[in-house]
User: Which sequence fits this backbone?
């Protein structure tokens, strides 16, 4: 099932993602679950919003990468994620915290709590990920 068709919209363009009938979609990491919230279809691919849930922490850093998008916004619902950016800047994003990462910004996730849940929004919906060298 494509993400675009996964959460139906009505004739008004309104999409409702109901908790009692979640639409799960493939994601970047096999040990996480991704729930589509309907913005991809409703916005014609201009924006994507998903809830990401993990029941095990990272066993090793994800590696340096950039996302091919205008921007990515993350809001932590529970747990925490450590992000490293250029210059050795490390930020822990914990429950109740949010972070906006502009597209093409090199970063790596270095550690996570054993379980976590977050909301992630990207513009556009089709956010690519490309491995990159660590910033120098």
Assistant:
């Amino acid at each position: 099932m494509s993400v675009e068709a996964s959460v139906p919209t009505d004739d008004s363009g309104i999409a409702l993602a109901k908790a009692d009938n979640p639409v799960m979609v493939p994601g970047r990491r096999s040990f996480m679950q991704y729930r589509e919230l309907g913005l991809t279809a409703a916005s014609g691919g201009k924006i994507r919003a998903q809830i990401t849930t993990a029941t095990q922490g990272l066993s090793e850093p994800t590696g340096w990468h950039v996302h091919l998008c205008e921007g990515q916004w993350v809001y932590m619902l529970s747990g925490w994620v450590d992000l490293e950016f250029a210059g050795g800047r490390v930020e822990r994003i914990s429950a109740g915290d949010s972070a906006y990462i502009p597209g093409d910004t090199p970063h790596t996730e270095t550690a996570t709590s054993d379980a976590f849940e977050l909301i992630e929004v990207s513009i556009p919906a089709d956010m690519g990920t490309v491995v990159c060298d660590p910033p120098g």
